[in-house]
Amino acid sequence: MEVHGVCDERFAAVREAFENNFTEHGDCGASFAVSIEGEVVIDIWGGHRDGAKTLPWEEDTIVNVFSTTKTMTALSALVLFDRGELDFDDPVTKYWPEYGQNGKEGTLVRHFMGHTAGLPGYGEKLTTEELYDWDHVIEVLARQEPWWQPGEECAYHALTQGHLTGEIVRRISGESLGTFFRKNIAEPLGADFHIGLDPEHYGRTAEMLSGGEMPEMPEEMTPEFMRGRENGVPDVMPPETNSEGWRRAELGAANGHGNARSVMRAQTPVANGGSAFGVDLISQSTIDQIFREQGTVSGIGATHGIGYGLTGLFALVMPDGVKTSFWGGAGGSTILLDHTNHVVQSYVMNQMAVDLLGDARGAGLTEALYASL
């Protein structure tokens, strides 16, 4: 197994764990990156970007990271908060008046950020073409009745969160979510991450490889408030994930494209007082908003704050006493921030596992990293 990139010799065990993901855990192509106190100490990649294993995963290879994208959408909202243009305790209708229909009049912006808004699904069946049409989806969400009183329950808004929060960003900035993120976060920080992928990048984009059917929550474990509701999400697992429609759409909850380096670079300021790589992005008081607990996500067990998970899931492999924020994507990608030691790490791959959020490959890299530290 040939591993490329930079890995400080202190972290030889991490490099070995990365190799083991290929030899023992079925990785096809992947990357892993770490910054400590704003300094990049690991940036490695290897394997292949196609299932036939004919194309090498290269330094600039990018791939769909599914729900790791949510932290980029959340960061966009945090930037607006930092500028005084958004308050998470404001009613959504202050920014998006049409949303105040059918019992959603009291929805607050933080309900979007913490999966408590009451719209974990779209409420009506969407085709893939409709899902990729931003304006259509916004109209669908605006007319829905919430599945519960906003703020009273917490259930994963797997795809809807990107449209809900993204529309707030659009209403305030006058720019689409992907454009705002690119201009205000990605480009200043040198993060090769895209919400809405231009065709010019397709040649270096890895093929997402299915890991099989994602497990569904047993009926007896499904909360009463979600039973009989229409999720409405079309099939967006591979091969659809490799389609032009999926890549070009701006789905702030799920279709961001990047690699471990770009995910790490975009999020490094959040674990370093708001500044990194010569950019003052947000203030520490804005970062503190993340840690306002909104609820524990039903069926997942992760405590969620403003835009990020706080406890549970793969954060459990972190040392005791470490203040964390995190999230991950279907199939295995992760972003994990250690606010105590100012460590940011990301694992990104193209071979999906049968996991909704992160998996053992990323957890093994985290364990090796902290053993080395």
Condensed summary:
By secondary structure, the protein is an alpha+beta fold. It has eleven helices and 14 strands.
Total domain modules: 1
Q: Treating each run of at least 4 consecutive H or I residues as one helix, how many helices?
A: 11
Q: Judging from the principal axes of the Cα atoms, what is the shape?
A: globular
Low-confidence stretches: none
Residues in helix, %: 25-40%
Largest beta-sheet characterization: 6 strands, antiparallel
Key words describing this protein structure:
alpha+beta, Beta-lactamase, 28% helix
Written account of the structure:
This protein is an alpha+beta fold and 373 residues long. The protein has a single domain, classed as 3-Layer(aba) Sandwich (Beta-lactamase), CATH 3.40.710.10. The protein has eleven helices and 14 strands. The strands form four sheets. A six-stranded antiparallel sheet has the order 1-3-2-14-13-12, with helices on both faces. The mean pLDDT is 95.
Secondary structure layout:
Elements lengths: L2 E5 L4 H12 L5 E8 L2 E9 L15 E2 L4 H14 L26 H5 L14 H4 L2 H10 L16 H14 L3 H13 L4 E2 L48 H5 L7 E3 L1 H8 L7 E2 L2 E2 L3 H5 L6 E2 L6 E2 L4 E3 L12 E5 L5 E5 L4 E7 L10 H13 L1
Antiparallel strand pairs: 1-3, 2-3, 2-14, 4-6, 5-6, 7-8, 9-10, 10-11, 12-13, 13-14
Helix pairs in contact: 1-11, 2-6, 2-7, 5-6
